[in-house]
């Protein structure tokens, strides 16, 4: 998606450890018009799929998923919580994921009352690096008996292999911008054609 790639080139910064900082428009300050264009692109890509729920992980994926849901007939958005809280009652699906940016493992939790075997799920997230977060969401869907219809990613770091692995497992991964390389020395970012 050219609009997203242009924003990354213009406003993204490369931090040590292969971290791409895009908080000016994607995951701190939110450009809702850009989110809308992303949702439209995913709706075109996944047209014909019976999407009944969108699933993401708190916090950065929530805004993107909510705006994208408008392009899928206002389907419900579920976000996996990263910590147990008194608001989570009843039976739950729990998986563990490793966060590339936070450099630690944490649980992801979804209430069983919101996800079940009749659901056809689109997974949405802001970043895909090594794929650990998505494997956690897939694990939750498998426990629920839900069908993963596809995966929508804003920015994939192609050089970290998570997207390639998920595709090799048969998942339809639609990443709107795939970064092939980042050079922190001169600040350049190369995208997959």
Automatic annotation (TrEMBL):
<dbReference type="GO" id="GO:0006166">
    <property type="term" value="P:purine ribonucleoside salvage"/>
</dbReference>
<keyword id="KW-0808">Transferase</keyword>
<feature type="binding site">
    <location>
        <position position="157"/>
    </location>
    <ligand>
        <name>xanthine</name>
    </ligand>
</feature>
<comment type="subunit">
    <text>Homodimer.</text>
</comment>
<dbReference type="Pfam" id="PF00156">
    <property type="entry name" value="Pribosyltran"/>
</dbReference>
<comment type="similarity">
    <text>Belongs to the purine/pyrimidine phosphoribosyltransferase family. Xpt subfamily.</text>
</comment>
<dbReference type="GO" id="GO:0000310">
    <property type="term" value="F:xanthine phosphoribosyltransferase activity"/>
</dbReference>
<keyword id="KW-0660">Purine salvage</keyword>
<dbReference type="InterPro" id="IPR010079">
    <property type="entry name" value="Xanthine_PRibTrfase"/>
</dbReference>
<keyword id="KW-0328">Glycosyltransferase</keyword>
<dbReference type="InterPro" id="IPR029057">
    <property type="entry name" value="PRTase-like"/>
</dbReference>
<comment type="function">
    <text>Converts the preformed base xanthine, a product of nucleic acid breakdown, to xanthosine 5'-monophosphate (XMP), so it can be reused for RNA or DNA synthesis.</text>
</comment>
<feature type="domain" description="Phosphoribosyltransferase">
    <location>
        <begin position="39"/>
        <end position="155"/>
    </location>
</feature>
<comment type="pathway">
    <text>Purine metabolism; XMP biosynthesis via salvage pathway; XMP from xanthine: step 1/1.</text>
</comment>
<protein>
    <recommendedName>
        <fullName>Xanthine phosphoribosyltransferase</fullName>
        <ecNumber>2.4.2.22</ecNumber>
    </recommendedName>
</protein>
<dbReference type="InterPro" id="IPR000836">
    <property type="entry name" value="PRTase_dom"/>
</dbReference>
<dbReference type="GO" id="GO:0046110">
    <property type="term" value="P:xanthine metabolic process"/>
</dbReference>
<keyword id="KW-0963">Cytoplasm</keyword>
<dbReference type="InterPro" id="IPR050118">
    <property type="entry name" value="Pur/Pyrimidine_PRTase"/>
</dbReference>
<dbReference type="GO" id="GO:0005737">
    <property type="term" value="C:cytoplasm"/>
</dbReference>
<dbReference type="GO" id="GO:0032265">
    <property type="term" value="P:XMP salvage"/>
</dbReference>
<feature type="binding site">
    <location>
        <position position="20"/>
    </location>
    <ligand>
        <name>xanthine</name>
    </ligand>
</feature>
<feature type="binding site">
    <location>
        <position position="27"/>
    </location>
    <ligand>
        <name>xanthine</name>
    </ligand>
</feature>
<feature type="binding site">
    <location>
        <begin position="129"/>
        <end position="133"/>
    </location>
    <ligand>
        <name>5-phospho-alpha-D-ribose 1-diphosphate</name>
    </ligand>
</feature>
């Amino acid at each position: 998606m050219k609009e997203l790639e242009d924003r990354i080139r213009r406003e993204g910064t490369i931090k040590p450890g292969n971290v791409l900082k895009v908080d000016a428009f994607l995951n701190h300050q939110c450009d809702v018009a850009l989110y809308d264009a992303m949702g439209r692109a995913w709706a075109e890509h996944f047209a014909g799929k019976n999407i009944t729920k969108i699933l993401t992980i708190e916090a950065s994926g929530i805004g993107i998923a909510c705006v994208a849901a408008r392009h899928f007939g206002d389907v419900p958005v579920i976000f996996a919580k990263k910590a147990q809280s008194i608001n989570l009652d009843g039976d739950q699906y729990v998986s563990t994921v490793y966060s590339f940016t936070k450099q630690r493992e944490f649980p992801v939790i979804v209430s069983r009352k919101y996800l079940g075997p009749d659901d056809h799920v689109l997974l949405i997230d802001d970043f895909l690096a090594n794929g650990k977060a998505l494997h956690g969401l897939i694990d939750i869907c498998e426990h629920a008996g839900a069908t993963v219809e596809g995966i929508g990613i804003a920015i994939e770091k192609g050089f970290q292999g998570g997207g390639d692995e998920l595709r090799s497992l048969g998942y339809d991964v639609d990443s709107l911008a795939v970064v092939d390389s980042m050079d922190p020395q001169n600040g350049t970012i190369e995208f997959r054609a």
